[in-house]
Specification:
It is a single chain. The protein is mainly alpha-helical. The chain contains nine helices and no strands. The chain has helices spanning 12-35, 40-43, 47-74, 77-95, 105-118, 124-137, 145-156, 158-166, 170-179.
Length: 180
Amino acid sequence: IHRYKHTNHMSKKTITLTESQLREEVKETLTRVLQEKPLLTELALSRKTYKERIRGLSCRLLEKWCLVRYCSLIGQEQYKKHWSDELRGHMLSMSRLSMKGNDSIEARQKVFEEVWADEDYNNPQLLTMVIANKFINEGIDVNSESVTRSIMDCIKAKSDIIGVILLIDINKITQYVQSL
C-alpha cells in the first residue's frame, strides 16, 4: 500500500483490492502461526538467564505459598483466596519459562534445586527471614505457631511445588494451589 501512496493515477479499487489482499495475507499468516507449535527456542532463555529468573521469582513464590498455607491454618478464607490468586500467578509465570537447548523437566528441575539449595530455602530460619517483611507488613506475628508450621510445611512441600510448576499445566497448578 505504501508504495502506491504517491501515485495519483492508481484507482481506489486497486488500492482497496491491495488492502483486501494484505488483510487476507495477515489473516492467513496469523491462523497458520497460531496453529503451529510456538518456536520455543526463540523465546527460550539461556540456562544462566533461566536460573536468574527462577532465583528472582522463588522468593515471592515461597512468600505467597507460606501466606496461603498460613491463611488455611487459621481459617482466613477471604485472604486465602487473594494470596492463592497471587501464588497461582507466580507459579504460572515460572512454568512458562523455558531454556534453550535442554528444556526437559529434569533440566529445569535441576535449576530449581540448584537455586533453592544456593538460597538455602530448606533452612527454616532463613525462610522466616525471606517471608518476614511481607508477613509483618500484613500484620502477622512471624513468631506465631501457625507461621512456623506454614514454613515447615513449605520446606516439606518443596518437591511438590517444583513438580507442579514443571508440569506447565494451568489446571494442575490451580488444583494444587486450591488444595493448600
